[in-house]
């Protein structure tokens, strides 16, 4: 019998498939598949106050993926706790809330409020711009990444996952910094920074000019970074970036991931997370793997 269970910092997932923050809506996705099929639901980013997001157009298809500059539009933590969380907690699937902020105080305020709820984990999005540092992303410097991790760790009663940005010179330095300040796990990679120009209109496709690049084209970068981070830290890793098939999941597990997040694939195929889980099971049956750990041990490094 195949055992797909995963231990993320003491939180047991029934399987390694989670949703990538920013791409999942419980009510919408629940129209296409049973949310109990997932290992965890990772929500869209939630801030201390409602965020309007960026101007439109803010999503564009591109070769091998998509660009988005939605800007973390969300109704705020109070609305989330009152209106969205009860629906998510009606399922057996673990709930991981992605936390966004424009300052360390913002992150801490959301973490404190979520600590009083029955969510299972927090995913701290340190790709957000730090308004007090001129808009520099928290996750692009080891010192800032460490600081936000340290302060959130002080106030959070829940395990915290730090979501790492790939837009850095050496992602392992950021990973080591957040591990040292109390992170319980990391997730990577967030989107790469990209741009597309409409040569007929002679202007950027996105109103914000640049946006997050996701999809299968970034998968080799994501696999490489997961591989590097696994060899730099001892924390559980959620790997993401261009996962479209069950074999993509296997690739991430062999690189060192404990679980994975599926995002862009669900825009093209709403049932992608469940389809990918079934393809993972088929792969394990084909090669007689009983656990995810056996897949890791089979990797020839």
Please report the distance between the alpha carbons of the first and last residues.
27 Å
Regions with pLDDT < 50 over 5+ consecutive residues?
none
Text of the CATH class: Alpha Beta
Structurally, how many domains make up the residues? 1
Described by strand count, sense and barrel closure, the largest sheet is:
8 strands, parallel
Principal-axis shape:
globular
Named CATH topology: TIM Barrel
Any overview of this molecule?
The chain is 33% helix and 21% strand. It is an alpha/beta fold and 301 residues long. The chain has one domain (6-53, 69-196, 211-298): Aldolase class I (TIM Barrel, Alpha-Beta Barrel), CATH 3.20.20. Strand 5 and strand 6 (65-68) form a beta hairpin. The longest helix is centred in the C-terminal third of the chain and has 15 residues, at 272-286. The radius of gyration is 18 Å and the shape is globular. The chain starts with 5 loop residues before the first strand and ends with a helix.
Features:
301 residues; alpha/beta; TIM Barrel; eight-stranded parallel beta sheet; four-stranded antiparallel beta sheet; 33% helix
What's this, in brief?
With 301 residues, the protein is α/β, with parallel strands linked by helices. Helices cover 33% and strands 21% of the residues.
Topology:
Layout: E1 6-8, E2 11-13, E3 17-19, H1 26-29, E4 40-42, E5 59-62, E6 65-68, H2 77-88, E7 94-99, H3 104-115, E8 121-125, E9 129-130, E10 136-137, H4 142-155, E11 160-163, H5 171-180, E12 185-188, E13 192-195, E14 197-198, E15 203-204, E16 210-214, H6 219-230, E17 237-240, H7 246-255, E18 259-262, H8 265-268, H9 272-286, H10 292-298
Parallel strand pairs: 3-18, 4-7, 7-8, 8-11, 11-12, 12-17, 17-18
Antiparallel strand pairs: 1-2, 5-6, 6-16, 9-10, 13-16, 14-15
Helix pairs in contact: 3-4, 4-5, 6-7, 7-9, 7-10
């Amino acid at each position: 019998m195949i055992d797909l269970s995963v231990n993320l910092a003491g939180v047991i997932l029934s399987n390694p498939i989670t949703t990538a923050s920013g791409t999942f809506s419980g009510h919408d996705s629940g129209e296409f598949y049973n949310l109990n099929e997932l290992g965890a639901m990772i929500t869209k980013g939630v801030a201390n106050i409602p965020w309007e997001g960026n101007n439109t157009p803010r999503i564009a298809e591109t070769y091998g993926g998509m660009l988005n500059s939605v800007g973390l539009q969300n109704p705020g933590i109070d609305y989330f706790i009152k209106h969205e969380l009860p629906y998510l907690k009606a399922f057996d699937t673990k709930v991981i809330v992605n936390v966004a902020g424009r300052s360390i105080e913002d992150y801490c305020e959301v973490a404190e409020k979520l600590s009083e709820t029955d969510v299972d984990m927090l995913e701290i999005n340190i790709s957000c711009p730090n308004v007090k540092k001129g808009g520099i992303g928290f996750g692009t410097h080891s010192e800032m990444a460490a600081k936000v991790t340290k302060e959130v760790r002080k106030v959070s009663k829940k395990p915290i996952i730090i979501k790492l940005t790939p837009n850095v010179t050496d992602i392992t330095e950021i990973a080591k910094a957040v591990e040292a300040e109390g992170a319980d796990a990391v997730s990577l990679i967030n989107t790469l920074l990209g741009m597309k120009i409409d040569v007929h209109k002679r202007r950027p496709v996105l109103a914000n000019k640049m946006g997050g690049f996701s999809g299968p084209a970034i998968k080799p970068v994501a696999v490489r970074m997961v591989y590097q981070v696994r060899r730099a830290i001892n924390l559980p890793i959620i790997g993401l970036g261009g996962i479209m098939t069950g074999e993509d999941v296997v690739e991430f597990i062999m690189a060192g991931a404990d679980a994975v997040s599926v995002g862009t694939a669900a825009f093209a195929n709403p049932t992608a997370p469940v389809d990918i889980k079934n393809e993972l099971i088929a792969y394990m049956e084909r090669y007689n793997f009983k656990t995810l750990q056996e897949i890791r041990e089979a990797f020839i490094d």
